[in-house]
Amino acid sequence: MSAASDRVSAMRDHVYELAAAHGVAVEHRRAGGRAWRRSRRISIAPVRSGITYLGALHELGHVVSDGQRGGRRMEREADAWRWALDNAAVELTPATYRNAYRCLCSYLHYAVRARLRGVTRGTIAVPEPDSDAWDVLDLLAQLGEVAMVEHARPPAVPRRAGRAVWWSA
Ligand SMILES: [Zn+2]
Hints:
The chain is mostly helical and about 170 residues long. It has one domain. The protein is built from 5 helices and 3 strands. It has a 3-stranded mixed β-sheet with strand order 1-3-2, covered by helices on one side. The longest helix has 23 residues, at about 95-115. It is globular, with a radius of gyration of 17 Å. Residues about 155-169 have low confidence and may be disordered. The chain binds zinc ion. Zinc ion binds near residues 58, 62, 77 and 80. Zinc ion (ZN) binds near residues 62 and 77.
């Protein structure tokens, strides 16, 4: 067996070990992932790379991490990535972390666009300036060796400041 296939089977085994240890059922899908906290179930793409490995740990994080209780969507997404990073047992590449960074950024962008359109209900809230979500974004950007866009972290502005001028792109 090659070193690369050893690595992939180590990652796959680790996902199943963790899932079993936490009593989480694993189902498969072609791509992407989902998690059901109450029924302790995840649906993940087959683990064939660092990206699908970290993605699988992310979905497990949604089920088992204490940070998933309460909190808002962006915070829960960030917490699930933090759990994935804390539990990863295989060395990962910057490209893998960049993928996680992009996933988390996509929620942020969605939230910012909604805020700019004045939509506040039924959407993802932009994290408060002191939210842990910013720290996870920072960490993933660092590990991914990309510069986090400077204006991604908003200054501490009053909630009623109106249009979020810190996001002009
Ligand atoms: Zn997620």
